[in-house]
Amino acid sequence: MQHNQKEHLYKILVIGDLGVGKTSIIKRYVHQTFSTNYRATIGVDFALKVLNWDSDTERFGNMTRVYYREAMGAFIVFDVTRPATFEAVTKWKEDLDSKLTLDNGKSITTVLLANKCDQSKDILVNNGLKMDQFCQENGFVGWFETSAKENLNINEAANFLVKHIIASE
Ligand code: GDP
Predict the structure, then answer these.
(1) Coiled coil: which residue ranges (predicted)?
(2) pLDDT in tens, 112-121
(3) Are 64 and 51 in contact (CB under 8 A)?
(4) Whether the CB of 115 sits within 6 Å of ligand 1
(5) Distance 6 CA to ligand 1 centre (A)
């Protein structure tokens, strides 16, 4: 690592309904980014706790507040093969915004992931314009079609999120 390079440590949340692919996305990203020597040399630790939205989530509202604490960015994930998981996206975003704001009062940088794009696609995702509009209206800085299975766009989405976080600092 060059001397003039600055190290950043960011806590990034990965949020979404059960089974949308959160764990797979994290594994894919972590495995790829921190494979071989890099991990051995730097000694990176990852803490991973998967939260899912269900009827009990409200009751554990304070727990999610604890998990959300000090995060700098978030992915909200849905499964393109299951429209209900897209319906839940706004609920997750509201939950996130209600529990976590940055010191400057703004909500944290959030990117929307349309995961399992290797499968048949939801009509909404086929209409990119609609997705752009949805992101604008709901406070997402952008969206990506991803596949944790085929390793599509995971790195691109992560780089995009980090760039936005750095730019907003
Ligand atoms: P989580 O509950 O959100 O953490 O979801 P998981 O990561 O456990 O994934 C749920 C299921 O979806 C598993 O069977 C995964 O193998 C599968 N899965 C995750 N990502 C993808 C993807 O991009 N494409 C396909 N086809 N399956 C996926």
Answers:
(1) none
(2) 999 999 997 6
(3) yes
(4) yes
(5) 34
Q: Which two tokens stand for residue 142?
A: 């952008």
- According to the model, what pLDDT value does residue 40 have? 42
Q: What is the DSSP string of 131-163?
A: HHHHHHHHT-SEEEE-BTTTTBSHHHHHHHHHH
Taking only the tens place, the pLDDT of each residue in 40-98 is: 444 444 455 555 555 555 555 555 677 788 888 999 999 999 999 999 999 999 989 99
Residues with Cβ < 8 Å from 75, sequence gap 6 or more? 12, 13, 14, 15, 16, 25, 110, 111, 112, 113, 157, 161
The answer to whether the beta carbons of residues 48 and 82 sit under 8 Å apart is: no
From 24, 144, 147, mutation site for ligand 1 pocket: most ligand atoms within 8 A of C-beta? 24
Is the ipTM beyond the 0.90 threshold? yes
Binding site membership of 148 for ligand 1 (Cβ less than 6 Å): yes
- Is 50 within 8 Å of 75 (Cβ atoms)? no
Which tokens in the block code for residue 37? 């020597």
Task: Count the Cβ atoms, other than its own, within 10 Å of residue 68.
Answer: 19
Tokens at 100, concatenated: 């976590």
Closest ligand 1 atom to Cα of 150: 23
Q: Is the distance from the beta carbon of residue 92 to the nearest atom of ligand 1 less than 6 Å?
A: no
